[in-house]
C-alpha cells in the first residue's frame, strides 16, 4: 500500500464521484494503447477535495480579500460584471480561426474599444495586439524606429529614459537592439532639463516618459521636454501605465506624446496578480498609424446590409468589421486577436462607467492618494513633498529606529492583514515605499491603513524585533526570493521514500 501512496491525502478506495455505468460498447483498442496498470490518481472523498481547494484559495491574498496598495500596479477592484461579460458563450467559445463573417460581434467590440481608447488618449489610431504593458513598449519602440528608418534617417539608435522609469522601459529598449541613455531627475522629481539637453542629438530615436511618473508626480516641464525632444528630431513615447490619474482630465496625445501603451489590466480593471493575463494596446498619432502592429480592426459600410436612406444616420448593422494590416506595419506581435478576454473586460468597464464615470475614477484615485500622502507624511519621510497624482512614494525608514528598513515595515503590514506597498522602486528613493490606494477604496479603509502604518512606526521604535521577524500570521514567512527565482518549484513532487 505505501508504495502507491504518493499523494499525502490519498487513501485507496476513497472517491469523490460516482461514474454512471457505460451505455456504449467498450472500444476495441490496440493492445499497445491499453495501460497495464491503473494510473496513480489521488483517491480522496468529496469533503477532502473541497477542503483541499478551499484551503489553497485561502492561502492567496488578493484585491477581493483586502487593501492592496501596490504602487504602479493599480490593483483596483475588478467589477464582477466584467467576468460575466467575458464568459458569455458568444465571446468565450469563439474559435480564433472562425471566418470573419461569424465573429462580427467580437470584431465590433474590438473596433469600439479602439475608438474608446482613441477618445480617452487623443491618439489617432490604436492597435490592440500587444499582450502587456512591456509588450506595448516593445511595439512602440519598433514603431519609432520604423518611422526614422522610413524617412531614411538611419543614424539613430538611442532612447532617453529617466532614472525614475519602470524597469520594463530599459528592458524593452535593449530587447529592440537599441541603446538606453539614462537621464537624471531634478530635486522636484521632474526630468532634469540640463541633462536632457546634454543628451539630445541626431542619434536619439526618442524619449520614454511616464507621466505622471513613478513618483506619482506630474512632470512640471512636460511641454518643454516634448518641445526639446521633437526639436532634435526625436519622438515622445508615453508609458501609459499611470493613465489611471488622467482619464477624462488630460489626453496624452495633447500633452505632446507620439506613441503610448495602455495597460488595460491596470487602468480598465482585469485581475492581474501573479503575472497575467494582460493587454497593452498602443496608440499613435496620425503620422505613425501606418506602422502599427497588425491586424487592427477596421469597418466598412456594408452596401447589402445597409437599408438607410440618403439622410439617415448609419447604425451598427450597416457596417462590416474586418481585420486589416496597416500599410507599413511593424508586423504581428501576438497570435490571432491578442488577449481578447481582457479586451472584453476593459470594454465592459468603460461602458459601465461612461465618460463622466472614468473621469470620476481618476479624480477619486488622485484624491485618495493625496489624502494618504497628507496623513502619512506626518509619520514617514516624504522625499518629494508636493501634491501627488494617483500614487506617492515614502521613505520606509525612521530617524529614531535605525535598524528598520522598508522591507520590515512591509512585512509587518501583512500581520495587519494588508498587502504591502511596492518596495525599493523607484530606485531614486531610499527605502522606497510606493503607495497607490486606487479609487475603489473607502475612507475607512484608507484610515485603517494609516492606523496600521502609524502603529508600525511606533513598534519600530519600541519593539524592532517584532518587525524584523514579521510576518507572524501568514502561511509562510520571509521567502528567499532569489532562490525561488533560480530554483522554482512549479509542481508538487512526492516526498523521497
Ligand atoms: C506595470 C508597468 C509597466 C509594465 O506593464 P506590464 O503590463 O506589467 O508589462 C510599465 N511601466 C510602468 C510605470 C508600470 O507600472
The ligands bound in this entry are: pyridoxal-5'-phosphate
How many extended strands? 12
By secondary-structure content and strand pairing, the structural class works out as: alpha/beta
| Number of H- or I-type helical stretches | 14
- Radius of gyration, taken over Cα atoms and rounded to an integer in Å: 26 Å
Give the CATH H-level superfamily of the largest domain: Type I PLP-dependent aspartate aminotransferase-like (Major domain)
Summarize the structure.
The chain is α/β, with parallel strands linked by helices and 497 residues long. The protein folds into three domains: 3-59, no CATH class; 80-351, 3-Layer(aba) Sandwich (Aspartate Aminotransferase, domain 2), CATH 3.40.640; 357-486, Aspartate Aminotransferase, domain 1.
Descriptive report:
This protein has three domains: 3-59, no CATH class; 80-351, Aspartate Aminotransferase, domain 2, CATH 3.40.640.10; 357-486, Aspartate Aminotransferase, domain 1, CATH 3.90.1150. The protein has helices at residues 46-58, 80-86, 89-92, 104-121, 133-150, 168-175, 193-199, 222-231, 264-267, 340-376, 406-415, 443-462, 464-468, 481-486; strands at residues 125-127, 158-162, 179-183, 204-210, 235-240, 259-262, 282-284, 296-301, 319-324, 392-395, 422-423, 432-435. It is an alpha/beta fold and 497 residues long. The strands form three sheets. A seven-stranded mixed β-sheet has the order 1-7-6-5-4-2-3, with helices on both faces. Helix 2 packs antiparallel against helix 10, helix 4 packs parallel to helix 10 (340-376) and helix 5 (133-150) crosses helix 6. It is built from 14 helices and twelve strands.
